[in-house]
Design goal:
There is one protein chain. By secondary structure, this protein is an all-alpha fold. The chain has a domain of 155 residues: Serine Threonine Protein Phosphatase 5, Tetratricopeptide repeat (Alpha Horseshoe), CATH 1.25.40.10. 76% of the residues lie in helices and 1% in strands. It has a two-stranded antiparallel sheet with strand order 1-2. Strand 1 and strand 2 form a beta hairpin.
């Protein structure tokens, strides 16, 4: 059995590339004497394996305890490579738990040791980890510097997977710093490499980041192009929830461009998916966007239909803020139609609800 190397990827829930690393382990042997079984303490390699398994089930604190025990054991036996690998695991664990100060401490310690041992792959990992942690601390200058060093090593080693991850992370650092042009350039390079590698999930994540960067720059048509490419991949992978998220992005971009018909079409698809998934929150958001889009078209009667459905969901969810917001939308649409009697009706429906709460 073996662990995979502490390698970055591009499918993190936080947009950046960071996967759970794993390292080589040795199998332990069991020995028995007649009917007596001699129980041996776990080796540090076994502690690492157990920690990785705990992380896979979301037991981050238990996993960290396992890694700490392994680190102590490696220190006692002066196993420097084992220490470096464990520090990488500890840094990743803290990063996923958003403990960025502790992440930086482990990564700096590991980086120093990796350099002394000339372990370039691990050095690149620690540099990337530091870059991500500093970005979350809003220290963009350091984040960019560390990611660039990581990229240099990956290019030197011709590590394509590493380059894909680091270019994506470097793009996120530039974007966070407000340098959208550099962010786009990095993410386009990352996308080209991911596409050539045939890694659809990674490609999807990068397309999302590219679309968001273009949207932030006001390049809505280009953002739509990236979102549509990502939608095609989500369809191919059968990922309905991601489809819904992309349809939201597409609807927003089309609405901003004044293309209300397309915004409506995308939000209807989103509503259909949310309904199938019984996702009430996404349903009410899609209904709100549909109502607003029909408002923009001047089709107030159709807008009212969707606002009515949203009002029903707000009451099912017992969300008073959402209910009041939707009643306000309904009153505004009725005012545009000149239906003042209906406005009074909505006013009256609001009052008893507020008194009863």
């Amino acid at each position: 059995m073996h662990y995979h190397h502490c390698q970055q990827s591009t499918t993190s829930s936080q947009e950046e590339s960071a996967t759970q690393p794993a390292f080589a382990q040795t199998a332990s042997s069991e020995r028995s004497q007649e009917a007596t079984v001699i129980l041996r303490p776990c080796t540090p390699e076994q502690q690492l394996e157990q920690g990785v398994k705990q992380q896979q089930t979301g037991n981050w604190e238990v996993a960290r305890e396992k890694f700490q025990k392994a680190l102590s054991a490696f220190e006692n036996s002066n196993n420097r490579l084992g220490m470096i690998q464990t520090l990488c695991l500890l840094g990743m664990n803290c990063y996923e738990c958003r403990d960025y100060e502790q992440t930086i401490q482990f990564a700096r310690q590991g980086l120093e040791m990796a350099r002394s041992e000339q372990a370039l792959s691990l050095e690149a990992q620690f540099l990337g980890l530091l870059g991500n942690a500093f970005r979350h601390q809003d220290n963009y200058e350091s984040a960019i510097a560390y990611q660039q060093q990581s990229l240099d090593i990956c290019q030197q080693r011709q590590d394509v997977t590493g380059q894909i991850a680091v270019l994506n992370n470097l793009g996120l650092a530039y974007k966070a710093a407000g340098n959208y042009e550099e962010a786009l350039e990095c993410q386009k390079q990352s996308l080209a490499l991911a596409g050539a590698a045939g890694d659809l999930k990674t490609e999807s994540q990068i397309l999302k980041n590219l679309g968001n960067s273009c949207y932030a720059l006001g390049n809505y048509a280009e953002a739509i192009s990236y979102y549509e490419q990502r939608l095609a991949i989500a369809n191919q992978l059968g990922d309905r929830r991601t489809e819904g998220q992309i349809l939201r992005n597409l609807g927003n971009a089309c609405y901003t461009l004044g293309n209300y018909e397309s915004a409506i079409a995308y939000n209807k698809q989103r509503l259909e998916i949310a309904t199938a998934l019984e996702d009430y929150r996404t349903q009410e958001q899609a209904l709100a966007h549909l109502g607003v889009a029909y408002d923009a078209l001047g089709d107030y009667a159709r807008a009212i239909q969707y606002y009515e459905q949203r009002l029903e969901l707000a009451r099912i969810l017992s969300d008073r803020r959402l209910e009041e917001q939707t009643l306000e939308n309904l009153r505004a649409a009725c005012y545009a139609l000149g239906d003042y009697a209906k406005i009074v009706e909505y006013e009256q429906s609001s009052q008893p609800s507020s008194e009863s709460r």
